[in-house]
Design a protein that fits this description.
It is a single chain. This protein is 34% helix and 24% strand. With 396 residues, the chain is α/β, with parallel strands linked by helices. The protein has two domains: 6-182, 3-Layer(aba) Sandwich (Rossmann fold); 189-394, Rossmann fold (3-Layer(aba) Sandwich). An eight-stranded mixed sheet has the order 12-11-8-13-16-17-19-20, sandwiched between helices. Helix 1 runs parallel beside helix 3, helix 4 packs across helix 6 and helix 10 packs across helix 14 (383-394). The longest helix is centred in the middle third of the chain and has 16 residues, at 168-183. It is elongated. The chain binds ligand PMT. Ligand PMT binds at residues 193, 195, 211-215, 254, 273-277, 279, 305, 307-309, 323-326, 338, 350, 358-360.
């Protein structure tokens, strides 16, 4: 699994740095090409000579080599890496990563890394459980970093508790799991819709809804992180970043979303419709701003928009079609009804009655209903975790 993989091993200044030697040896033994980047403090704990002898490459620590002036490009390293593992990651390094404080080569490489980053924290138990460390860890998780949790045991301070860096064998296992997960959907094509649609009334007004796109984007990213080729049709949202494996098509109205979805449907293997599509649009769009003067009120005539899910449901051939149901009452009953009516294979129910579910939130609480009638209920989780649950169920 690791053969031929390019791995940047980042080492920061903690006593657990001695374990990084074993980690490096294991990675190289499994056929990975490893480039070590070490912080200035890291070198106080372990010598670059050992690391360079084991990796077969000069160890990078400074932005340039003092006597030759040779420049070390963190951007090139970031592009080269298939995976960056930071082990040990001290509280200070984790804090810098979470806040983008790029004052050493390890952090600039982290900020330039295009692929997955994995962190194995190591520190004293009080430092680990400090709210500031936990906040930074939560930020890294949110940024998509894999955290290989420290274990509990005897620490260098003599105290006993959580904070010991995970054993090198288990960090290697986590890296192997990551690469095998990456490969599970290789060659598969996925279409996802996300966000709201805006239906113009005049040049300054529209009918819209509160969808932020967070749920759909998390699903697109999750499929891409498992190696799938993803097309994401996104309504007007403010989210900028997506996984590099996601091709994004921006649309505004339900009609545009429908056209983009239909034209990308044919060769898709999985189609997830997480967008909150406006069911109605104004019959006509005024060319200039509608004025208030001279009227007591106004009537806006609305016409039905296409139902994208139902349209694709009728076109379905080999595709697995997954819809969402956003409900306020008779939740399960309505979800079953939509599943059947739109010819879906699964429907993901989220209810606006759940305080941790629905529009704009970072969390969601779902029940996945299958075409055979099975209902799988999940606790509230981050949308990233919810996306994992959905992909685990539908893409087996
Ligand atoms: O974007 P976030 O802020 O993260 O919020 C996420 C979400 C709440 C928008 C998402 O989890 C969700 O529930 N999306 C579906 C919302 C919705 O429109 O549900 P619905 O029950 O009205 O529609 C049922 C299904 O048909 C959905 O898959 C929907 O995308 C689809 N549909 C609906 C109408 C329409 N004209 N065309 C469609 O394809």
């Amino acid at each position: 699994m690791l053969k031929g993989k390019h791995i940047v091993l980042g080492i920061s200044g903690g006593i657990a740095a001695y374990k990084s030697v074993m980690l490096l040896r294991l990675l190289v033994k499994r056929g990975a090409e490893v480039q070590v980047v070490i912080t200035p403090n890291g070198k106080e704990f372990i010598t670059p000579v050992t690391l360079s002898a084991l990796s077969g490459k000069p160890v990078v620590s400074e932005f340039f080599t003092a006597n030759t002036g040779e420049w070390h490009s963190h951007v090139d390293l970031g592009l080269w890496a298939d995976l960056m593992i930071i082990a040990p990651a001290t509280a200070s390094t984790i804090g810098k990563m979470a806040n983008g404080i790029a004052d050493n080569m390890l952090i600039t490489t982290y900020l330039s890394a295009k692929e997955q980053v994995m962190v194995a924290p190591a520190m004293d138990l009080d430092m680990w459980r400090h709210p500031s460390t936990q906040r930074n860890i939560a930020t890294l998780r949110k940024d998509g970093v894999i955290i290989v949790e420290p274990e509990a045991g005897e620490l260098a301070s003599g105290l006993v508790g959580k904070g010991r860096m995970e054993e090198p064998e288990n960090i290697v296992k986590a890296a192997e799991e990551y690469f095998s997960r990456m490969a599970t959907l290789k060659g598969k094509k996925v279409l996802v819709t996300a966000g709201p649609t805006f239906e113009n009334i005049d040049p300054v007004r529209f009918i819209g809804n509160y969808s932020s796109g967070k749920m759909g984007f998390a699903i697109a990213d999750e499929f891409a992180s498992r190696g799938a080729e993803v097309t994401l049709v996104a309504g007007p949202v403010s989210i900028k970043e997506t996984h590099p494996g996601v091709r994004r098509i921006d649309v505004r109205s339900a009609k545009e979303m429908c056209e983009a979805a239909v034209s990308n449907f044919g060769d898709a293997d999985y189609v997830v419709l997480a967008a909150a599509v406006a069911d109605y649009a104004p019959e006509s769009v005024a060319d200039s701003k509608i004025k208030r003067e001279g009227t007591d009120g106004m009537t806006l005539r609305l016409v039905k928009n296409p139902d994208i899910a139902a349209t694709l449901g009728c076109m379905k051939d080999h595709q697995k079609l997954i819809g969402f149901a956003l409900e306020t009452d008779h939740e399960l009953e309505n979800a079953h009804h939509k599943l059947e009516k739109k010819h879906l294979d699964w429907i993901v129910l989220n209810s606006l009655n759940d305080p941790e579910a629905g529009f704009m939130k970072d969390t969601n609480k779902i029940t996945i209903v299958s075409a055979s009638g099975e209902e799988m209920e999940y606790p509230a989780k981050s949308k990233r975790e919810v996306a994992k649950d959905i992909v685990d169920v539908v893409a087996v």
